[in-house]
Amino acid sequence: xxxxxxxxxxxxxxxxxxxxxxxxxxxxxxxxxxxxxxxxxxxxxxxxxxxxxxxxxxxxxxxxxxxxxxxxxxxxxxxxxxxxxxxxxxxxxxxxxxxxxxxxxxxxxxxxxxxxxxxxxxxxxxxxxxxxxxxxxxxxxxxxxxxxxxxxxxxxxxxxxxxxxxxxxxxxxxxxxxxxxxxxxxxxxxxxxxxxxxxxxxxxxxxxxxxxxxxxxxxxxxxxxxxxxxxxxxxxxxxxxxxxxxxxxxxxxxxxxxxxxxxxxxxxxxxxx
Amino acid sequence: xxxxxxxxxxxxxxxxxxxxxxxxxxxxxxxxxxxxxxxxxxxxxxxxxxxxxxxxxxxxxxxxxxxxxxxxxxxxxxxxxxxxxxxxxxxxxxxxxxxxxxxxxxxxxxxxxxxxxxxxxxxxxxxxxxxxxxxxxxxxxxxxxxxxxxxxxxxxxxxxxxxxxxxxxxxxxxxxxxxxxxxxxxxxxxxxxxxxxxxxxxxxxxxxxxxxxxxxxxxxxxxxxxxxxxxxxxxxxxxxxxxxxxxxxxxxxxxxxxxxxxxxxxxxx
Lengths: 273, 269
What we know:
The complex is a heterodimer of chains A (273) and B (269). Chain A has 273 residues and is of the alpha/beta class. Chain A contains eight helices and seven strands. Chain A has helices at 18-29, 53-64, 80-94, 118-144, 167-190, 213-220, 223-228, 240-251, and strands at residues 9-13, 33-38, 70-74, 99-102, 148-153, 195-202, 262-265. Chain A has a seven-stranded parallel beta sheet, sandwiched between helices. In chain A, helix 1 (18-29) links the parallel strand 1 and strand 2. By secondary structure, chain B is α/β, with parallel strands linked by helices. Chain B is 40% helix and 14% strand. Chain B is built from seven helices and seven strands; from the N terminus they run E-H-E-H-E-H-E-H-E-H-E-H-H-E. In chain B, helix 5 (166-186) links the parallel strand 5 (148-153) and strand 6. The termini of chain B are far apart.
């Protein structure tokens, strides 16, 4: 049986591990070829280890194991020129892009002395990085005239004000709210080109960004925060594939008239507020 | 100094006590005359006593002590004919109508599987159809006056899915729908329509929320939904009245279709 995305090409940022890798595998399983990028380097203000070139190589291996093609490059979403080069290298090999997943993000929350630059870094990666990603991909999608689907990864923190009183936390919530503004604007401006734009809003996901000592200490530090972080459905963390499944639906033709939507995949978290 | 709603007439449902009485007094303090109605009778389905005729008489006394006029009648918001008679009589005596506070409401607490058909129907009839009836009987008078302001009392339960309050939540969400629609339909008549969304208020109805405690003990995960952000458990009726006054006054002349939260930050958590 043909997959839901047979013959399509997807551009995915933050694809070395976590949600990004899961999206690459899920979309490849439905027939898509993948252009993957990841910074594969540490950012100083981020307390947990970020992805490595080995992680990105593992994503490549898993997509190839599904008999799909993948072009992977190291690129920082904050660096427009490098990101554009990675995008164009992928298009040169795989053909024009139908799907864009602006997924790369950081969560530089920490207790005690806050890392210098946490606010600026999280805004640069989570918001400006998303902007760069869409800006780079959209001209070729418009020119080709075949429509397309863009999904921006926001968060429950893109709907609710959860900051935990830290600079990184405020920045994270501000960046994820900002992503919603971008999504709504792009959804309006790109609609005439049949390019749909939506955002997904995961609750805590079982990935290295969330499941690490620093984040767990941060969440445990304030009972009102940990209380507020409880999902409605009896599950603490959802799995990356839960987000990938929502994204698969949004980018497939099943959702051909769905645009401008903030889709929570949050075990009832935001409804509980 | 002239009051902020001087020379205006306000129609208030559920005015015998609680928020309704507070609205009557606050608007009268700022110069409005009042048309007050209340059912003044208990419901079989509601666990706390509703207002009495003596309560309504107390509202009359409090407004008259401010040197304002008040026409009070017992009327059930579920009975459009009775409600129309009350507002028509009030307008005949006081001369006009400018402000409508659709405030009457009831509240019951129970898990979803304890919601009886009667509780469902009474809550929808009072809190939703009652608001609709209030608008239907009032709007012709506002059109005659050349404009006006309608304030529908919703709730944080009109924004959030508060557990154990299913009929109440359904009705209070419905109120938002009516208000938005009417804000559009009535704008051409310079009639503004807004909703206010209180968190828990220190009133006799608010005491009905006591029934939540055993349910939340059973399921503590749901407790934080009811928590305010500002350090206050219940607000005072006057806090809601101050919002109603603003929306009723010409200070808000270009404010319509708004969900006005007076909720100590409950809905932003």
